[in-house]
Amino acid sequence: CLFLLAALIAIGMAGLRVDFGLLLEPLGFVKVLEWIFAILAFATCGSFQGETILLVSCKGVVNKTVTASFAYPFRLNTVEFSAPDPKGCGGTWTDVHLVGNFSSSAQFFVTLAALVFLYCIAALVVYIGYNHVYQQNNKFPLTDMIISVLTAFLWLISTFVWAKALAGIKMSTGASIIPGIESCKAQGTTCSFVSVTSMGILNVSVVFGLLNMFLWGGNVWFLYKDTKLHNQWNRISENP
Question: Is this entry keyworded Cell wall biogenesis/degradation (predicted)?
């Protein structure tokens, strides 16, 4: 981002030549797709809100639902179930929290999506307004290609760790949590699992992460064709 800012300042004096036709070419079209899919990855993960619901019966309380609401960034260990009854259960119900802190994986994924979103905007400004400078200076295509390689790798890592964290979130909010709740083991107390909010949208966020990885990896080829490395290779292969 700092490089792009410096580049934009450096080429600002070169003159703006707006050409939206570049968006129809692979270089610009793929960058638009990368921008859109970064937004989708950010939105599907960062906007999630859900809750786990249990049914509790104990002394003085019959079939009372308790809920634990959770959301991004999924610090589940800070999420507490509502008490069945402040004065019920004969004092056997203590504060019950969900288990696990998955914030680092979720924030890594969302932060990458946000940075990619900003980078795509800056790159599109260069492509559309300063393409003549971009093509004349080989450093820009080469740097763009290196950033694309790095970004594809980061999408791979972030999607992998987020998918693993998502599996943990499902375990920590599903029916398997009941055996770990001490209050549900008290004499005369029974707990049963009712439901948990569907996490289909989070599954979709993993898919968008993979799509972003393939987009950025595939874009390396189009960027490579704009560098001197590709031109030099062509000259070598054509030289008898």
Answer: no
SS3 readout for 104-165: HHHHHHHHHHHHHHHHHHHHHHHHHHCHHHHHHCCHHHHHHHHHHHHHHHHHHHHHHHHHHH
Domain extent at residue 137: 20-227
Of 103, 106, 143, the closest CA to residue 123 belongs to: 143
For the chain, helix (H) and strand (E) counts, in that order, are 7, 3
Q: 223-239 b/e with 16+ CB inside 10 Å = b?
A: bbebbeeeeeeeeeeee
Count how many domains the chain has.
Answer: 1
